[in-house]
Design a protein that fits this description.
The protein is α+β, with helices and mostly antiparallel strands. It has a domain at 18-141: 2,3-Dihydroxybiphenyl 1,2-Dioxygenase, domain 1 (Roll), CATH 3.10.180. Helix content is 18%, strand content 40%. It has helices at 32-41, 94-102, 118-127, 149-152, and strands at 8-10, 13-14, 22-28, 47-52, 57-62, 65-66, 71-78, 81-88, 105-111, 132-138, 141-146, 155-160, 172-174. Strands 6-5-10-11-12-9-3-8-7-4-13 form an eleven-stranded mixed sheet. The radius of gyration is 17 Å and the shape is globular.
Length: 179
């Protein structure tokens, strides 16, 4: 730790606080079906499944450069937490990098912007020297991952669901569509 610690400003804040509430945990896998079956056994679900590709995700970047990547992605909510499971498909991605380095497991945590705009939140990471390692825009939701693994052992993602956002109809539901 640095000698220049931030000041404690409250029971849950520091003078340099900017990261929002943790609202998502993501597991990266080689087999989305197997992983979803495991989560369903734990009582997490139902899961919406989507394919993210250059056709459905715009403004794709990887390591700061335009890139094309695709993945199968599943989302479920448990309490106030959103769970995400990603199986990378084509193209370079931080998900493939994680699998090669660590195997399957928790690859990133997602943070809300908590009053900052998406761009302001990105600027805060960049001012700390943390690089945007992957980004894109799915429907109206922009997302960006920052290279925080060396600092905290995992990657931090920020995204901003615009007010009134509704999830598009998924390709399928696991184990079944809610009633």
């Amino acid at each position: 730790m640095s000698q220049n610690h931030p000041q404690v400003t409250g029971p849950a804040s520091l003078s340099n606080s900017f990261i929002g509430d943790t609202i998502q945990v993501c597991v990266v896998t080689n087999d989305i079906r197997r992983t979803l079956d495991g989560f369903v056994k734990l009582g997490v679900g139902p899961w919406r499944i989507y394919t993210f590709s250059p056709e459905t995700v715009k403004e794709q970047t990887y390591m700061g450069k335009p890139e094309r990547y695709s993945m199968r992605l599943a989302l479920a909510t448990s309490g106030t937490m959103m769970w995400e499971v990603i199986q990378p498909l084509e193209g370079p991605s931080i998900y493939k990098d994680f699998l090669a380095k660590h195997g399957e497991g928790i690859q990133h945590v997602g943070q809300a912007c908590n009053g900052l705009t998406f761009d302001q939140q990105c600027e805060k990471f960049e001012k700390l020297g943390l690089k945007n390692v992957q980004a894109g825009k799915w429907t109206t939701v922009r997302y960006a991952y920052f290279g925080t693994e060396d600092l905290v052992g995992t990657t931090v993602e920020i995204f901003d669901f615009p007010e009134g956002f509704e999830f598009p109809e998924p390709e399928e539901w696991v184990p079944a569509r809610p009633a």
